[in-house]
Amino acid sequence: MMQQFRSNSYLFGGNAPYVEELYEAYLDNPGSVPDNWRSYFDALQNVPATDGSDGRDVAHAPVVESFAQRAKANAFMVKTSSADLAVSRKQVHVQSLIAAYRFLGSRWADLDPLKRTERPKIPELEPSFYDFTESDMDITFSATNTYFTKAEHMTLREIVQALRETYCGSIGAEYMHITDPTEKRWWQERLESTRSKPVFTAEKKKHILDRLTAAEGLERFLHTKYVGQKRFSLEGGESFIAAMDEVIQRAGEKGVQEIVIGMAHRGRLNVLVNTLGKMPRDLFAEFEHTAPEALPAGDVKYHQGFSSDVSTPGGPVHLSLAFNPSHLEIVNPVVEGSVRARMDRRGDTLGDTVLPVLVHGDAAFAGQGVNQETLALAQTRGYTTGGTVHIIINNQIGFTTSDPRDLRSTLYCTDIVKGVESPVLHVNGDDPEAVVFATQLALEYRLAFRKDVVVDIVCFRKLGHNEQDTPSLTQPLMYKKIAAHPGTRKLYADKLAAQGMGETLGDDLAKAYRAAMDEGRHTVDPVLTNFQRKYAVDWTPFLGKKWTDGGDTAIPLAEWKRLAERITTLPESITPHQLVKKVYADRAAMGRGEVNVDWGMGEHMAFASLVASGYPVRLSGEDCGRGTFTHRHAVIHDQSRERWDEGTYVPLQNVAENQAPFVVIDSILSEEAVLAFEYGYAGSDPNSLVVWEAQFGDFANGAQVVIDQFIASGEVKWGRANGLVMMLPHGYEGQGPEHSSARLERFMQLAAENNMQIVQPTTASQIFHVLRRQIVRMFRKPMVIFTPKSLLRNKDATSPLTEFTKGEFRTVIGELNADIEASKVKRVIACSGKVYYDLVKKREEKKASDVAIIRVEQLYPFPHKAFAAEIKKYSNATELVWCQDEPQNQGAWFFVQHYIHENMTEGQKLGYAGRPASASPAVGYAHLHQDQQKALLDQAFAKLKGFVLTK
């Protein structure tokens, strides 16, 4: 092995990391490297840069390559004596050994409280790998590239000892995958200067023991009092509560004023009581089923959220634990969105005052794809929250029945974060001081570099996945070790007793905690019960309102023209694309009332009027700046720009001097995390219009968990109101099964208890009014808008100016053809969406003057009064037909038929016209699409057959 090492030169090969580190140190401070290296690097600066730069910092690869070439030519060695060469070679080997521990030391760290596995063989961590012998151990070498001591030299024995103490103790640090040398040096300094061991006062140690006692005490109290009830116990991972306490107290000391926490089940009840300060008696009432039932559905206790204010050395800190379903990690992007909304409300662009903390299980962190999506958002402009502190409760088992060989495909459960260059601190849960120290470092890193960081608490799970589980059925060996484990609190109490802190300290704290439990008192001191937060949001004005409650959505003509001029007047410094230039010229004409208003202008004017009135607008999604179908052009790109990061203009950000923010974000290629983020944002800001647009409505499939667990049911389960808007392009245009249907039927199936609004507007004025309605009303429910594709440019879907300066969103649009006499109508066709325009054209072809066509623009809550009023106009109509583009088993048919039936008159019959039932949302062959489209239109005017419902 060393033969190959030598053949590549002592300046290259396995020493490439050392060469790079030396070069990084030189760039930072030339005086920090040995003279011969500094001379070489100085000479290298005179070599012309290949990247055209004239600064000191050149790429590392050419540096390392130059050493390889010089080694081959023996150019460096000819000037060096054999004795100096031997010393230099050993010094390089020492640096390689140091680099190896920085890269691989975590593999030898003492992380497992159960001590189930042997330390792996890693030759690179052994001095013998570099041909060092016992006789070399007391030789002095340079230590200037380390932080172990202020002295410039250490013996090899001292260096090896320092390396093992730092990187192979209770903390296993991974940070060398980070490319930024400043960040790497930050970690090296903090770990190596302390040997990864904290120095805590006696009072601090007592506080840590107190938190461990609280964590264990609650679990044992519940285990005794509520036998067999699910609670997802934290036993075996009690150090997590000490970590949470440290995050909160230290963050408050650093100026953080709000912390939003997301976590699944494990330890959640413990966090509620011992971190957030929920009254134990309130938790007991939930176990005893005596808690008040204030919600239509409610949820189990280990899904519940909570908020409180606690005192810290830096002042009060508001804590929010997000409500979450059993879909594990899906709460994470919701938390990030909530944090971003709070930051925006405070004007905090860096994350100085608001901190997201996400708590994960080991298997879920490695296995759930939403984590990758959420991490991918972390450093993007529209979604950054200034870094997240991740804490993993690593039970080393994943879920009860899993075989260790099947847990994941990576070495660590945290390896996913290496893709975004987040550092990881693995820490032994049985060393609570190390856990607290790792948490301190993680928080300080986050505040310094605004990036995600992970604390992986390696612990165990004393009980099963839940308290009704018997884990020894499938994990007999592991649970034999767990049964013999005395518990983290006992181990730490004994350690403090041995340090002279009192033989009875542990027992005294346990008795005090048990007394608090028996009395149902607070276990967090102090919880601020009457603290008034400056940036708190009051949802009270929006609660208890009806969807029919008004809100004037028309705007005066003068205001329309003023806004239209502002958003269509482009600065001379911007050179738009010729197509975009025409779009804006056309919009200017629309603003003046010279031509009808199209969809893009109607949407723009809705946004402009809102921000001008002080309502922020946040619009995100793939392609949403331009619009998937190039109808929006909210962001204008200067065609003469020379840099990619300059030369854009957003007209809606220039509506008025004191306007509210307009933010448009082209998201990453993600649906699940982005939609969850926007849901979280909207849930923390009722005064902003928050819109997520799918590239195609079908792609919302990738976010179905968010739709099912949050958007549709969050209010009835948790009492969480939300005004998020989803725009889902929908319509059968012959584009195949994945570009036709936004699965309207799924939303209709989820619609109940007035939980959401489902609309399908068909004109420019309708999208204008419905967007404004969502925010100007004091009513907040999620709204799903099925937006068109071909109608975006269909002149029939444009609207005259008067429909914007007067009127409102029409939930039902009646027959518009004045030539259709109501008394002669025999059939009424009801529909929703694009098919309306096809039906009108078909009626003209057939000259069917006895057929009236009405559009249902709001499918839920169904507008019974407006629909009934339209039906009653046609007293001689004996037939009603529901016509839709979608297959019969999809679309709105199975849901609206009951609503329609309710409003029919005696003797009327109801039939269906549309595509036959299908396993696929749409066909992929163009000719089949055309055949089906012709057939459904013919069916709409033909004799009723098949299923017919009679009043």
Keywords, separated by commas or semicolons:
single chain; 951 residues; alpha/beta; Rossmann fold; 4 domains; eight-stranded mixed β-sheet; seven-stranded mixed β-sheet; 31 helices; 25 strands; 38% helix; globular; disordered N terminus; EC 1.2.4.2; 2-oxogl_dehyd_N; 2-oxoglutarate dehydrogenase E1 component
Helices and strands in order, then pairings?
Elements: H1 2-7, H2 16-28, H3 35-44, H4 60-73, H5 82-104, E1 140-142, E2 153-155, H6 156-167, E3 171-174, H7 181-192, H8 202-225, H9 239-253, E4 258-263, H10 268-274, H11 280-287, E5 306-312, E6 315-321, H12 331-346, E7 354-361, H13 362-367, H14 369-377, E8 389-394, E9 424-428, H15 432-449, E10 453-458, H16 476-484, H17 488-498, H18 505-519, H19 557-568, H20 578-591, H21 599-612, E11 617-621, E12 636-637, E13 648-649, E14 662-666, H22 672-683, E15 689-693, H23 704-711, H24 714-718, E16 725-729, H25 744-750, E17 757-759, H26 764-776, E18 783-787, H27 802-805, E19 812-813, E20 827-831, H28 835-846, E21 851-856, E22 858-860, H29 864-871, E23 879-887, H30 893-903, E24 909-915, H31 926-941, E25 949-950
Parallel strand pairs: 4-6, 4-7, 7-8, 8-10, 9-10, 11-14, 11-15, 15-16, 16-18, 17-18, 20-21, 20-23, 23-24
Antiparallel strand pairs: 1-2, 3-9, 5-6, 12-13, 17-22, 19-21, 24-25
Helix pairs in contact: 5-6, 8-9, 8-17, 8-18, 9-15, 12-22, 19-20, 19-21, 21-26, 22-23, 28-31
How would you portray this structure in words?
The chain has 951 residues and is α/β, with parallel strands linked by helices. The protein has four domains: 2-171, no CATH class; 202-519, Thiamin diphosphate (ThDP)-binding fold, Pyr/PP domains (Rossmann fold); 557-805, Rossmann fold, CATH 3.40.50; 814-950, Rossmann fold, CATH 3.40.50. 38% of the residues lie in helices and 13% in strands. The strands form five sheets. An eight-stranded mixed beta sheet has the order 3-9-10-8-7-4-6-5. A seven-stranded mixed beta sheet has the order 14-11-15-16-18-17-22. The protein has a six-stranded mixed beta sheet with strand order 19-21-20-23-24-25, sandwiched between helices. The protein is globular. The termini are far apart. Mean pLDDT is 90; it is low at 1-14, 47-55 and 74-80.
